[in-house]
Design a protein that fits this description.
The protein is α+β, with helices and mostly antiparallel strands and about 425 residues long. The protein is about 30% helix and about 25% strand. It has twelve helices and 20 strands. The strands form four sheets. Strands 5-14-13-10-11-12-15-19-17 form a nine-stranded mixed β-sheet, with helices on both faces. Strands 3-2-1-4 form a four-stranded parallel β-sheet, sandwiched between helices. A four-stranded antiparallel β-sheet has the order 6-9-7-8, covered by helices on one side. Helix 4 packs antiparallel against helix 5 and helix 6 packs across helix 9. The chain is globular. It starts with 5 loop residues before the first strand and ends with a strand.
């Protein structure tokens, strides 16, 4: 007989928490109000208490109700799933004295300046005692407290630079600035676009290079699973690109094991929670790895689907079960070093909308051998893209090698663009 745990779940996205959390645990779910009508009645039955919030991401009522309901339920675990809830969950745990990820750990994975400061500090300590096999560089960066910080940074390091929120996500409010001309309108805005208060921004040197991401799962400090993939286009390009895509590397690609070793070092350097899924991004340029960022949650877009395809492990489910201190019910290897040698490739595509109204969009994809999942957005009218995973359509692709999966991705993108018609276009 296992002990009953009492879980407060911060459910920013409509995942089937009721299927993932062990049956004997009590669950209280907080979720955005738009999910109230889409949840099926059977699922609702599984929760001891359900509460839906308007303005979920920003409202302080989430914390207010968490503390109130704690009096009644005496929570033993506070779970997050989304980037936006990591710091919020840590503050609730800290105040209520609940074990789990601490505030310093949450900040080291959320605040891009704290993250890089922590990484650099740990790397310098490592290199004294036990230098990592791969050198990891950080771009020059600075927290922006005033427009003067921007000007002094540019004077010291030159263009191009990137300005982004220190706790942003999905490349929202991220600006690539190549010249003084590009800088003026950004200074004009005063770093508070799209929000009610000042956002904390950082500036960093722009890195020219190929971008990779490494995804996996850490169980009580041991990396049980991890695999690298390469981006086609990058998240930052969502305002100008037609699509964002990524594909897993061939097992015998020499960068595969090097990227695994880099990710392993990075995770060792940050202040890690006990068990978590991760998404680490690095550039590779002139045979050197440059750190971009690391997240203690599952990668967005099609990342989870790719890891499921390659290893039969659902990272979203693992993140939930791990935060409950329960055994993950996916077949995790004992250690990433002993995980299976994959012999196929999987990837994903997000098609970005143009501005305007769609007159026709394909309902099915004809390439069913390689495109194993194809979903289209419900919206038909687009005025702005808010986020790098705001999509018109998304696809998951499989193939037998990097060369062929790149061809399959390009073929699917060409097909989709040709078949999708916009009003006013011939």
């Amino acid at each position: 007989q296992m002990e009953e745990k009492r879980c407060l779940i911060l459910g920013r996205y409509p995942f089937p928490f009721h299927d993932w959390v062990y049956d004997q645990h009590l669950m209280v779910l907080f979720a955005p109000s738009q999910f109230e009508d889409v949840m099926n009645p059977q699922a609702k039955q599984r929760y001891e208490h359900l509460e839906f919030f308007e303005n979920y991401e920003k409202t302080g009522r989430v914390e207010y109700r968490a503390l109130q309901l704690h009096q009644q339920y005496h929570f033993t675990h506070v779970l997050y799933q989304a980037e936006q809830d990591i710091i919020r969950a840590a503050h609730i745990r800290d105040f209520l004295g609940i074990p789990g990820q601490s505030i310093p750990s949450a900040l080291s994975f959320r605040d891009k300046c704290i993250m890089k400061d922590t990484l650099l500090q740990s790397l310098s300590e490592l290199s004294e005692n036990n230098p990592p096999s791969e050198h990891i560089r950080c771009p020059n960066f600075k927290r922006i407290n005033s427009a003067v910080d921007v000007l002094s940074f540019v004077e010291e390091f030159g263009f191009p630079v990137v300005i982004k929120p220190t706790r942003g996500m999905g490349a929202v409010n991220t600006y690539i600035i190549k010249t003084e001309q590009d800088l003026i309108p950004i200074l004009e805005n005063g770093f508070a676009k799209g929000c009610d208060g000042p956002i904390d921004y950082e500036i960093e040197s722009f890195v020219h290079g190929e971008m990779y991401h490494i995804d996996g799962y850490v169980d009580n400090g041991i990396i049980r699973l991890m695999y690298p993939s390469k981006y086609i286009n990058t998240c930052v390009g969502y305002e100008s690109s037609k699509f964002l895509a990524s594909y897993s590397l061939d097992y015998d690609n020499p960068l595969r094991s090097r990227l695994q070793s880099v990710a392993s070092t990075i995770l060792q350097c940050l202040i890690a929670p006990p068990s978590y899924s991760f998404h680490v991004e690095v550039w590779y340029t002139n045979d050197e790895f440059v750190f971009c960022e690391a997240a203690c949650r599952t990668g967005g877009a099609g990342v989870s689907g790719v890891i499921c395809e390659l290893f039969e492990v659902n990272l979203n489910k693992a993140l939930v079960q791990g935060q409950c201190d329960d055994v993950v019910t996916s077949p995790l290897p004992d250690h990433w070093i002993s995980q299976k040698e994959v012999d196929s490739n999987s990837g994903w595509i997000i098609m970005y909308p143009k501005m305007g109204i769609i007159s026709s969009i394909p309902k099915f994809c004809p390439y069913s051998d390689t495109v194993i999942d194809y979903e289209i957005a419900k919206k038909r009218e687009f005025s702005t893209i808010e986020h790098c995973v705001d999509s018109l359509a998304s696809m998951q692709v499989i193939s037998s090698s990097e060369t062929s999966i790149i061809e399959e991705i390009n073929k699917a993108v060409r097909w989709f663009e040709k078949q999708t018609k916009w009003e006013g276009e011939e």
